[in-house]
Specification:
Shape: globular
Strand content: over 45%
Helix content: under 10%
Strand order of the largest sheet: 1-2-3-5-6-8-9-11-12-13-14-18
Order of helices and strands: HHEEEEEEHEEEEEEEEEEEE
Radius of gyration: 20 Å
Largest sheet: 12 strands, antiparallel, barrel
Length: 341
C-alpha cells in the first residue's frame, strides 16, 4: 500500500506538468533545492564522502521577491519522491533505493526587494526501516539571512549567511553543534530566456568530536564548494523550462584515532586527512503552474547524479580516485512538487 501511494504521487506530479498555461516563469528558484547545493552524504548514503548537513544546501540561493499579494511574509511546502535507477547491489544502503522528502520554508522580507530572513525544516520517509522504527528521520533546521545586490552588466548577486540547528539523526551521531555557512551567488538572464547562475560557498562544522559515534568514521572540519546552473525557458511555452546543474565540493576531515567509544574518545584534535572531493549534477524539466487560489505550484522532474536529499558521490572509491558519471548508489530519478503561499 505504501509503494502504491508513492507511485500515485509521482504520477500526479508528471500529469500536472502538462496542464494549463501561466503568466510566465519567475527568476530561477532552482537553487533552493536540487543540485544547486552540495552535500557530503546523507547517512547512510553509499559512495559519498562522509557525513552531511544537507539542509544547508537546500537553504542556499533562494529567490529574492516580495511575498504573494504584496505581503512580506511567504511560506512554501513541498514533497520529493526519489528512486535509484539500480534497485539491487546497493552495498547496504537499500533504504535509499526509494524514499520521500518533505519540507517547509518560512520567509520574511525585511526590505521590499533586498533583505530577507528564512527558516527551513524537513523530514525523510524511508520505505525500509529497522524493526520497531517508522522510517521517519528529521532533517536539520536552517536559519538564513540573504541580501540582494544589483550589479552592472545586468548581474544580480545574493549573499547569504546561515546557521544550522542539529535536529537530524546524522548531526546527533556527529556531535554537531552548528554549521555556519557563507555563500555568494551571481545570476544573469540572457536574451530573456536563458538564466545562468554560479554560486560559491563555504561551511565550517562546529562539533564535539572528530569522529562519528562509531569511533572510526571521521567528521568533517570544513567544506568549500561551487555550483553552476543554466536553465532555458521554452519560447513557445515559457512556463516550461529545461536546465542543467552541476556541483563540486572539497571537504577536510579529522584524522580518526581508531579508539573505541569511551569517556575521552573522539575528542577534537587538530590533525586532518587529505582533502576529499565530491561531485554531482542533474538535468531537469521544471513547470510553473498557474496560480490556484493564491497558491503558486511548481513541478520538477530530474535525472540526477546525487542531490542534497540523497548526497553526492565521492571521487575516492576504496582508496582509489575515480570519476563515475553514472554511479549506481547516486544515479536517480526524482520528482518534486512545491507550493508557495
Amino acid at each position: 500500500m505504501r509503494k502504491t501511494g508513492t507511485w500515485l504521487l509521482a504520477a500526479a506530479l508528471l500529469a500536472a506538468a502538462g496542464a494549463g498555461a501561466t503568466e510566465g516563469k519567475e527568476a530561477s528558484v532552482k537553487g533552493e533545492r536540487g543540485a544547486a547545493g552540495g552535500a557530503m552524504s546523507a547517512a547512510p548514503s553509499g559512495g559519498s564522502s562522509g557525513p552531511s548537513t544537507n539542509a544547508l544546501d537546500r537553504a542556499g540561493d533562494e529567490t529574492q521577491r516580495a511575498g504573494i499579494g504584496g505581503s512580506r511574509w511567504e511560506a512554501s511546502a513541498g514533497a520529493e519522491v526519489h528512486r535509484l535507477f539500480i534497485q539491487t547491489d546497493l552495498e547496504g544502503v537499500g533504504a535509499q533505493r526509494q524514499f520521500e522528502y518533505y519540507f517547509a520554508t518560512f520567509r520574511y522580507q525585511l526590505t521590499p526587494n533586498n533583505d530577507k530572513v528564512s527558516l527551513r525544516a524537513g523530514f525523510y520517509q524511508y520505505l525500509l526501516a529497522d524493526p520497531q522504527e517508522t522510517g521517519l528521520r528529521a532533517d536539520d533546521v536552517v536559519l538564513a539571512y540573504t541580501h540582494r545586490f544589483a550589479l552592472p552588466w545586468e548581474l544580480e548577486s545574493n549573499v547569504q549567511g546561515s546557521l544550522l540547528a542539529p535536529t537530524s539523526f546524522i548531526s546527533y551521531k556527529m556531535g554537531l553543534i552548528t554549521a555556519p555557512r557563507l555563500s555568494v551567488e551571481l545570476t544573469r538572464k540572457l536574451a530573456g530566456l536563458v538564466t545562468v547562475s554560479v554560486r560559491g560557498f563555504g561551511d565550517y562544522y562546529w562539533q564535539r568530536y572528530d569522529t562519528m559515534a562509531d569511533g572510526a568514521t571521521p567528521n568533517p572540519v570544513a567544506r568549500l564548494g561551487a555550483t553552476a546552473d543554466v536553465s532555458f525557458e521554452l519560447p513557445w511555452h515559457r512556463p516550461l523550462s529545461a536546465g542543467l546543474a552541476g556541483y563540486t565540493g572539497y571537504a577536510w576531515f579529522y584524522l580518526p584515532q581508531g579508539q573505541p567509544p569511551g569517556p575521552n574518545y573522539g575528542a577534537i584534535r587538530p590533525q586532518s586527512q587529505p582533502v576529499q572531493q565530491s561531485y554531482g549534477g542533474e538535468a531537469y524539466l521544471r513547470y510553473q503552474v498557474p496560480k490556484l487560489y493564491g497558491i503558486e505550484p511548481s513541478l520538477q522532474l530530474s535525472y540526477a547524479q546525487g542531490d542534497p536529499s540523497l548526497g553526492y558521490t565521492s571521487r575516492l572509491h576504496d582508496g582509489v580516485s575515480h570519476l563515475y558519471l553514472f554511479y549506481r548508489l547516486s544515479s536517480e530519478l526524482y520528482a518534486a512538487l512545491e507550493l508557495k503561499f
